[in-house]
Amino acid sequence: MADIINTQADDASWTDTFYSLNRGNAETELQRLDANHFNVWLPLTGQVAPAHILDQLNQNSSPRVADVATGTGVWLRSVAQHLRSDAEVFGFDFDAVKFPVSTASSNVKFKQQNVLQEFPTELQGTFDLAHVRLLLIAMKASEFQTATENLF
């Protein structure tokens, strides 16, 4: 598994990817994806994560959070703002082209990982919270079982 930090999407690599929803200008699409989080997700849910989950995470010493199919990492970066400073937050995606160039928090890391492949053993069972959203729209029905097994 490759550590990918500070990767920048350019239009040349943008369309050369397995992710089928990449369209148009890379910067415009990245802004759209982030805007969906702030203009759709947060207004619908009212919060980045339920308060009792954030409270529990913050009671742990060095809580670890994984965001699978992280895309731009917008949820991960948002939740990191609500966690203690020693939290470790990791965004995983098979398409590293959307990873942000930089993040506001030094504890936010991005790693290239395909959910259809087993996660490295050193990561298995090490997270206090694993977050997955909208993954089903990017997968075939025949892949759901494999993805679910790799998440546990």
Annotation keywords:
transferase; methyltransferase activity; alpha/beta; 152 residues; SAM-dependent_MTases_sf; Rossmann fold; four-stranded parallel sheet; disordered N terminus
What does this structure look like?
- With 152 residues, the protein is of the alpha/beta class.
- It has one domain: 3-Layer(aba) Sandwich (Rossmann fold).
- It is 32% helix and 13% strand.
- It has five helices and four strands, in the order H-H-H-E-H-E-E-E-H.
- Strands 3-2-1-4 form a four-stranded parallel sheet, with helices on one face.
- The chain is globular, with a radius of gyration of 15 Å.
- It starts with 10 loop residues before the first helix and ends with a helix.
The SSE string, one letter per element, is HHHEHEEEH
Question: What is the CATH topology descriptor?
Answer: Rossmann fold
Strand order of the largest sheet: 3-2-1-4
User: Oligomeric state of the chains?
Assistant: single chain
N/C terminus separation: 18 Å
Number of helices: 5
Structural class: alpha/beta
Taken from the alpha-carbon principal axes, the silhouette is: globular
CATH superfamily: Vaccinia Virus protein VP39
CATH architecture assignment: 3-Layer(aba) Sandwich
| DSSP helix fraction | 25-40%
**Rg calc:** 15 Å
Which residues sit in consecutive blocks of at least 5 with pLDDT less than 50?
A: 1-12
| Domain module count | 1
* Biggest sheet record: 4 strands, parallel
Mean pLDDT: 80
Count of distinct strands? 4
State the CATH class. Alpha Beta
GO biological process, one term: methylation
InterPro entries: Methyltransf_25 (IPR041698), SAM-dependent_MTases_sf (IPR029063)
Keywords: Methyltransferase, Transferase
Protein name: Methyltransferase domain-containing protein
